[in-house]
Design brief:
The chain is α/β, with parallel strands linked by helices. It is built from eight helices and ten strands. The protein has a four-stranded mixed sheet with strand order 4-2-5-10. The protein has a four-stranded mixed sheet with strand order 6-9-7-8. α2 packs antiparallel against α3 and α6 packs parallel to α8.
């Protein structure tokens, strides 16, 4: 059994949130540059150039990539041989989020009551925390400060097996078409298939953490990713919705076993500020 102090969990989460908020992943930057070279629309090229420059300045100055610094989503893979001392795991994670948003001058956007009072908590907490118990004596974190312009475009389709892969691709493309410019394209599309409605949504959000250029290991799902991406980029929405052939950068599909009678399909859209970071303690 390995002991991990709660204050070290707080420090790790803070570091990861700050890193994700200011430093775009290398795979994302490479894809944006590739799309800039292939974009056919002058307006689209200008938007992509601006996005790339914005990311460069954010990294150099260590300031937020986007003013919407999001709701902190934390995926924690907790080794079953870890003994956490000094406080509750949830409290340690939320303290890390609080410190990151305070010290990084990141916008605090969380309200305590979603319907009536809508009072800002002032700390950007509580975070959304998903915990998986895994083998080992470490804690691995994937953090995602998720903006809500794109989150608001999420969709869930409770399809039946008869819809097949064709129906899934159609749902993905139609969801992006309806979203239009609202999620700040170019976007990354996370898709979760199977499980239950709630688990499909979690799977879709996890899929957003995949590196651009990495695909589902199953070639059948790879083919669906490729087909959906090609159809999305033929919609003409383009960067910032100003037209062009770069509406999405990637479609990442993951799946879960499900009931014989159903085929839940969840779609979680992320804007070009695809902020995520990971690390272990």
């Amino acid at each position: 059994m390995r002991e991990i102090r709660s204050e070290n969990i707080t420090l790790k989460v803070k570091q990861l949130i700050l890193d994700a908020s200011c430093n775009a992943p290398a795979d994302l930057l490479a894809k944006l540059q590739e799309c800039l070279e292939n974009e056919t629309s002058p307006a689209g090229k200008y938007v992509l150039e601006t996005i790339i420059e914005n990311n460069r300045v954010a990294r150099k100055e260590q300031i937020a990539i986007c003013q919407d610094t999001g709701l902190a989503v934390i995926f924690a893979y907790l080794g079953q041989d870890v003994n956490i001392r000094g406080g509750l795991f949830k409290d340690a994670v939320n303290e890390g989020v609080r410190q990151a948003y305070e010290e990084g001058f990141l916008r605090k956007s969380i309200v305590d009551d979603p319907v009536f009072d809508r009072k800002n908590t002032g700390t950007n907490t509580p975070a959304v925390i998903y915990t998986d118990i895994v083998a080992g004596d470490k804690i691995h974190f994937k953090v995602m400060p998720k903006g809500f312009g794109s989150e608001n475009m999420s969709a869930l389709g409770m399809l039946t097996p008869a819809h097949g892969s064709k129906g899934i691709v159609e749902l993905i493309v139609e969801t992006v078409r309806k979203a239009g410019p609202n999620p700040c394209p170019p976007t990354i599309i996370g898709v979760g298939i199977g499980g239950t409605a709630d688990m499909a949504m979690v799977t879709a959000k996890k899929a957003l953490c995949r590196k651009i250029g990495e695909h589902n290991p199953d070639k059948r799902y790879q083919a669906m990713e490729k087909e959906a991406l090609e159809k999305i980029n033929c919609l003409g929405i383009g960067p910032a919705g100003l037209g062009g052939n770069t509406t999405s950068l990637a479609v990442n599909i993951d799946y879960l076993p499900t009931h014989i009678a159903g085929m839940p399909v969840a779609i979680n859209i992320c804007c070009h500020a695809s902020r995520h970071s990971e690390g272990s303690i």
